[in-house]
């Protein structure tokens, strides 16, 4: 097993014909993993830094899946008396259908089934973010994605994604083999690590996208939080 270069082996979740029941179990287990290993806490950290002292914001997530990141942000905003409106974009209808059932998001969220690149905003969101989304793309596609997030956000954007690391790979492989009941999670969780990034790779991607100022910080467990502010 080599960790020198990113893997481009496709994840099972990226296939177009997965039964909804399998997608639902996958999203439920990923939410549990994100909660227990601090993934949602990293997302909230990114939001908190970009919000500053604002008391009303418009937040968009690309690759929103089951909407659990938005719920974590919604909880944070309620605790801090911040009025928030969401847009959740995902290319899979099944993911949007599942996300739209979440009670916390039924009155303040616009759901969009689309490739994020094809979405046009009448009013740009203040903040755009992604969580565990970037590793699904090639480096070339990511350069375009970074530029899109910059062009379509008012305040900035942030990314929460995986560090490619041998400890992270073998740990998540062991955890999912023991506790997961989803064939998608068992296959894709360790593969996601192999498709993840080093800090230097992120620095090179941002440079190629034309960005000079951004912050990148390592987060537990084996993730990076990258923040760009206008």
UniProtKB/TrEMBL annotation:
Transmembrane segments: none annotated. InterPro entries: Methyltransf_25, SAM-dependent_MTases_sf. It comes from Parasediminibacterium paludis. It comes from the Bacteria. Keywords: Methyltransferase, Transferase. One of its GO terms (biological process) is methylation. GO terms for molecular function: methyltransferase activity. This is Methyltransferase domain-containing protein. Gene3D superfamilies: Vaccinia Virus protein VP39 (3.40.50.150). Residues 59-147 form the Methyltransferase domain. SUPFAM superfamilies: S-adenosyl-L-methionine-dependent methyltransferases. The keyword Transferase applies.
């Amino acid at each position: 097993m080599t960790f020198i270069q990113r893997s481009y082996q496709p994840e099972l979740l990226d296939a177009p014909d997965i039964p909804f029941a399998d997608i639902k179990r996958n999203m439920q287990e990923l939410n549990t993993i994100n909660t227990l290993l601090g993934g949602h806490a990293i997302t909230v950290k990114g939001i908190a830094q970009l919000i500053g002292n604002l008391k009303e914001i418009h937040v968009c997530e690309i690759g929103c899946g089951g909407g659990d990141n938005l719920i974590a942000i919604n909880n944070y905003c309620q605790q801090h008396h911040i009025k928030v409106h969401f847009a959740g974009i995902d290319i899979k209808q099944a993911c949007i259908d599942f996300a739209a059932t979440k009670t916390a998001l039924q009155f303040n969220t616009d759901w969009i089934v689309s490739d994020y690149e094809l979405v046009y905003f009448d009013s740009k969101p203040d903040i755009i973010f992604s969580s565990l989304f970037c590793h699904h793309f090639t480096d070339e596609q990511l350069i375009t994605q970074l530029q899109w997030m910059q062009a379509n956000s008012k305040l900035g954007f942030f990314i929460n994604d995986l560090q490619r690391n041998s400890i992270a790979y073998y740990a998540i492989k062991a955890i999912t083999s023991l506790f997961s009941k989803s064939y998608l999670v068992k296959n894709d969780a360790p593969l996601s690590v192999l498709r993840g990034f080093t800090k230097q790779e992120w620095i090179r991607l941002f440079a190629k996208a034309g960005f000079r100022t951004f912050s990148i910080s390592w987060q537990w467990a084996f993730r990076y939080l990258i923040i760009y502010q206008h």
